[in-house]
Every structure is written in structure tokens, then in C-alpha cells.
Amino acid sequence: MVTQHxxxxxxxxxxxxxxxxxxxxxxxxxxxxxxxLNLATLRYAATFFNRVAGDSQQNKMPVDNLACVLTPxxxxxxxxxxxxxxxxxxxxxxxxNAEGIGVVSNSRAVAAQRLSREKLNGANTSSRQLxxxxxxxxxxxxxxxxKPL
Length: 149
Hints:
Elements: H1 4-16, H2 20-31, H3 36-54, H4 56-59, H5 63-75, H6 84-96, H7 106-140
Helix pairs in contact: 1-2, 5-6
């Protein structure tokens, strides 16, 4: 369900940054890169097992225990150099943060809106510049030299 590419990307980020809050946001953002079916299945399964962990007083299955059992199924077999304990930590994180899987964070949404506005403003500026250049071209030419725009 979680692709090897996503897992390797997380490991690389983890190696270069120890800010757990930032890594948590990045991990949830990385989930958005999963294929749609994988993302929907992961969100559904994580939400279900998060609810199971909510009853851990009765069923003795907190998030960490569930992660140990579910990791091989969600992540696939650990390849060369990949440690099962790292995969288990990721699955534990995903189960504990199930409500954030497939959801764009507020900071990312604001950044996307700002980028969209900038692109729109840039497109409008470009259109204005093109129209202005076309008008200058027409004004500078003599009547029988005019070419269609």
C-alpha cells in the first residue's frame, strides 16, 4: 500500500532533518503522492485501525502493537538495507495520524493559493504586455503594411 519510493523518500528526509513536527507534515504530504487507490485504501485502513487502538484498554492493541502486526502488509517486505523497525515507526505514525492522510495541510493550501494568485497575476501581466506590444506594432506600421494579429 505504501510504495517503496515513498518510504525511501521519508528515510532520506529523516537522515537530514530531525524536526519531528516538520517530518510529520512532510510524511502526510508524501502520502498525497500515492496512487489514488493506495491513498484511499491507506486512509480507510489507518482510520479503522486507529479506532481499534482507541479501545486498547479492552483489546490490548495500542497503535504500536498494531503497527508491528500490520507493517509487512502495508509496507511490503523490507528490502536490502531497509530495517523493519523504521517501517514499523512509519506505520505507527500513519495509524496515529490517520485523520491527516490524504488531507492537504492548511499551510500547503495557503501556499498553493498564493502560488495560484501569483501565476494568475503573471498571466494577466503577460496578456497585457502582449496586447500592448500588438497595439504598438499596429500603430508603428503603415496602413498597407499591417498584418493580421
